[in-house]
Amino acid sequence: MTRRGGASSGEPKTADVLLEVTIRLLGEHGEGGLRVEDVLSEAGASPSSLYHHYGNRDGLIEAARVIMFTRSVASDIEVLRTILDESETGSELLERILQVNRAVQDPNRAPRRRERLAILGSAADRPALWAALSEQQDNLTAVTAELIRDAQERGLMRSDLDARAVAYFIQAYTFGRVLSDVASEPVDPDEWMRVVDLVVSQWIVTDADTPTSPPRRRRRPAR
User: Do 48 and 84 belong together in one domain?
Assistant: First the structure.
């Protein structure tokens, strides 16, 4: 998965082009339908370039899977970061989280959930990919937990809950929607959201209308 070389400054980065083309083709055709010839043709690269940067087809796919996984989860983290930064009371935070949940849990986002499932499934028999995804997951969970601890310190969220456990649960109920996506009788979206709203509302402190300490700029953990 590690790139073996790169272009000099100012030149097109063949490794990046190969990676982006692979990510797009994986999304369109899946791993089984990915042809190295198509990747090379669209990237305008030679077979030697692919082997130089990624070793082989598997190395290229693994590198693409890591980027796809990281981008998918990181975008959810940025949404959480934004709503926590912009909320000054628990009521504001709850309202924003419930709004975001409806967007994230929308049935129309099923392809994105399936993509994340496919990435994890492809890592089952690839120890190197599994290790890379594990590293990314640990880092992203740490970022989420840090945001939750900050919200707890500001009085927005219950402080008696373990921040890391909440971080995993947020990701779990978001990703877990895929179970309904693949069911022969999917759960009613409104009923699903009633359950999610009820659970999430238990985390938020909404018994005071006075503003908490103002949002402050936080140092982001290295990724």
Answer: no
Neighbours of 12 (CB within 10 A): 11
DSSP count for the chain of H helices, then E strands: 10, 0
Q: Is the pTM of this model over 0.90?
A: no
Question: Can you give 118-179 as a three-state secondary structure string?
Answer: HHHHHCCCCHHHHHHHHHHHHHHHHHHHHHHHHHHHCCCECCCCCHHHHHHHHHHHHHCCHH
**CATH code (residue 138):** 1.10.357.10
**C-alpha distance from residue 104 to each of 30, 170, 191 (Å):** 23, 11, 15
Query: What DSSP line would sit under 28-70, residue for residue?
Result: HHTTTT--HHHHHHHHT--HHHHHHHHSSHHHHHHHHHHHHHH
Instruction: Give yes or no: residues 31 and 125 share one domain.
Output: no
Shared domain for 85 and 38, answered yes or no, is: no
What is the domain extent for residue 137?
A: 65-223
Provide the residue-wise pLDDT of the chain in tens; the chain has 223 residues: 545 544 444 445 889 999 999 999 998 888 889 999 999 999 999 999 999 999 999 999 999 999 988 887 778 778 888 998 899 999 999 999 888 888 888 888 888 888 888 888 889 889 989 998 998 889 889 998 999 999 999 999 999 999 999 999 988 888 888 888 888 898 898 898 899 999 999 999 876 444 444 444 444 444 4
Tokens encoding 94: 């709850």
Neighbours of 4 (CB within 10 A): 11
